[in-house]
Amino acid sequence: MRATLQWTRVFLALLCTFGFVVASAQAKEAVYQTGFDEWLAAEGDFAGWQQSGARLNENGELVLDPATAVLETDPYAAGTYYEGNFYTGGTYWVGEATGPAFPAGFDFDELIPSWNAVTPAGTWVEVLVRAELDGRWTKWYNLGIWASGLETIQRHSVRLQGDADGYVSVDTLVIGDKKAVANAYQLKVRLFSVDGVATPGGRYLSAATSTTPIKKSAPSTGNPDYWNTLLAVPECSQMVYPDGGNVWCSPTSTSMIVSYWENYTGPCEPAVRAAVAGIYDWIYGGTGNWPFNTAYAATHGLQGSVRRFSSMDEVEAWVAQGVPVA
Known about the structure:
By secondary structure, this protein is α+β, with helices and mostly antiparallel strands. Helices cover 15% and strands 29% of the residues. The protein has helices at residues 10-15, 249-262, 268-279, 290-298, 312-320, and strands at residues 4-7, 34-40, 50-52, 54-56, 62-64, 70-73, 91-98, 102-103, 110-118, 123-133, 136-137, 141-146, 166-169, 172-175, 182-193, 201-210, 303-306. Strand 13 (166-169) and strand 14 form a beta hairpin.
């Protein structure tokens, strides 16, 4: 059984870890709600996804189908997308799989997808999201173009997608129309190959939904049964690297957790620098793209996802089970 990594954003740890605010009989208070859904190839969860140019392999993973994949050309000429390439700047084969409409269970304002994929040289993946607003669907928003290595593409987020319905903040779909009701969504994964023979493999997808963080809330009480749990996570500092350490909080944390699961007790620097190289988003210009962090962790044989918690009570429960949270 593979260990499961549980993650929450740094800003959420600061803003949204004080728990739910319960409505009283005298006044109705705002409630911060979070949701999480996931699809695992190993459990056959992609069987119900609509496939075009893609298929399921013997492990239930989404892979390119060479017989039905479509030959396309990069929408930007080579070197013209912010002086780089959107994909490769040339031609490639592509297939896709689209999940069914999935109810969030509440009216959400934000959604963060995560993925775990295998991308051999010559391949990459792309993840898109759309939301149902008041009974109609938004356009598809691009939440990331990703490969584990840099042999074929440079992984990146996508700028300037905003419209009246919403926008993408690096790795997060934000519903822009606060009067609209967003209570369902769809995910789409696109699978790319330069030669149509090598194929990526999508083995895990997830979506973290949430409402807008509340400004004032009551502290959560916590569970004393979970207190005083100390996990042997390697202690590494991001501030010892003059070439960027002051902004390497995400990859440093990711490297520490990967090292924890791998029982690595060596020096921090090789692990931190490997994480930086494996996470860097060249359009964002940094390593704070959290789905890229968890996708990197998954290349180490782990299962990683971005999740949002409503309080530290939820985090305590995971730590008590031996799962560190970044």
